[in-house]
Design a protein that fits this description.
Layout: H1 6-10, E1 21-23, E2 27-31, H2 37-46, H3 48-51, H4 65-80, E3 85-91, E4 97-105, E5 112-118, H5 127-141, E6 147-151, H6 156-164, E7 168-177, E8 185-192, H7 194-199, H8 203-209, E9 211-213, E10 219-220, H9 226-233
Parallel strand pairs: 5-6
Antiparallel strand pairs: 1-2, 1-9, 2-3, 3-4, 4-5, 6-8, 7-8, 9-10
Helix pairs in contact: 2-4
Length: 236
Amino acid sequence: MCPPNPTVDAKKPDPTRIPHRIETQRLVLRCYEPTDAETVRVVCAANREHLVEFMPWARADPQTLDEKLELVLGFRSQYDAGKNHIMGIFDGATGALVGGTGLHPGAARFGFEIGYWIIAEREGQGLVSEAVRALSLVALRLGHGMVTVRMAPENTRSEAVVERLGFRREGLVRNSFLFGDDPPRDTVQFTLLPAELEASDWVAATEASVRGFDALGRPVDLSRGAEQASSADSSP
């Protein structure tokens, strides 16, 4: 058996790294595993018509198991590298896949953009709001400067989610969404800053119910002041 490497063993995990698993009152938000590929295949195919209006990637469905496996492996690779954090939304009680979300690189390379979708039968139950609250708390408490949500101007249901949470409407951003060979589309952009998170009427309840865990299952500090601790830990 090889002796432990004291240099590696003593190194602290990056305090700004997005957790691999986030638990909320009703949900588990986590990076996909290869074993999720069949579930992703079935759920996306069943919800294609529900999703395709605002999620152009849904046009590719139905896909084969191997196609979904390659997709999931790519998601996981980017997550582990800290480049893009694509997550499934799973029911905390049953483990069923009920949607997708993530913290994606911001267009201005500052902060993260939150994306989300939910299956048809779970729409209107507040699950998207619960996921967005949790991801906003995680990103901003870990020291990232902004969270952004963008949607098509016609997607009033999505817009209502972030308005209820106190995101600020920045306005219409023309030709700001690109997908494949489609013509560019306009989006409406909303943002939330750290001070706005802390002033929100939902932050205390969210902090009390949300837990984050790194890739080794270790708890991640999401308390207020975690940002300052992260900065101190990373100082030379």
